[in-house]
């Protein structure tokens, strides 16, 4: 059985610790959305690489740019939901760690 990792309260110290709650949540969500965008871009490139159609280097460069833009649009439209699910998982672990820390300080 795989047990989920819990983020230690000490890891929350610094610029993303208490007092900047919105800041670290926004950064986690943005980072997860960026991860999803990169994953989508790689998926699009792999699908295109598996194509039977051969293309010139100019058209290949154009298609890479098109893949980048498509990944941007897909992410802005909500993507696959992976980024949002990852962010909620991370934030849930942070909240759990904070509540454990608060409980142990009482």
Structure description:
By secondary structure, the protein is mostly helical. It has helices spanning 21-49, 57-76, 82-104. It is rod-shaped.
List the helices and strands and how they pair.
Blueprint: H1 21-49, H2 57-76, H3 82-104
Helix pairs in contact: 1-2, 1-3
Radius of gyration: 19 Å
Note the beta-strand portion.
under 5%
Shape: rod-shaped
Distance from N terminus to C terminus (CA atoms, Å) equals 32 Å
Question: How many DSSP-defined strands?
Answer: 0
Structural class comes to mainly alpha
Task: Tell me the helix content.
Answer: 55-70%
Strand-and-helix sequence, N→C?
HHH
The biggest beta sheet reads: none
Tally of domains? 1
- Low-confidence stretches are 1-20
Number of helices: 3
Average pLDDT level: 79
Keywords:
68% helix, 3 helices, 106 residues, disordered N terminus, rod-shaped, mainly alpha
Short characterization:
Helix content is 68%, strand content 0%.
């Amino acid at each position: 059985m795989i047990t989920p990792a819990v983020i230690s309260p000490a890891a929350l110290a610094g610029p993303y610790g208490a007092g900047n709650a919105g800041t670290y949540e926004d950064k986690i969500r943005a980072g997860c959305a960026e991860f999803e965008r990169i994953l989508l871009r790689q998926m699009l490139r792999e699908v295109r690489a598996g194509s039977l159609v051969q293309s010139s280097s100019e058209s290949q460069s154009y298609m890479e740019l098109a893949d980048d833009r498509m990944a941007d649009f897909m992410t802005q439209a909500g993507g696959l939901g992976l980024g949002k699910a990852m962010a909620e998982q991370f934030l849930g672990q942070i909240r759990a760690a904070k509540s454990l820390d608060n409980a142990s300080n009482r």
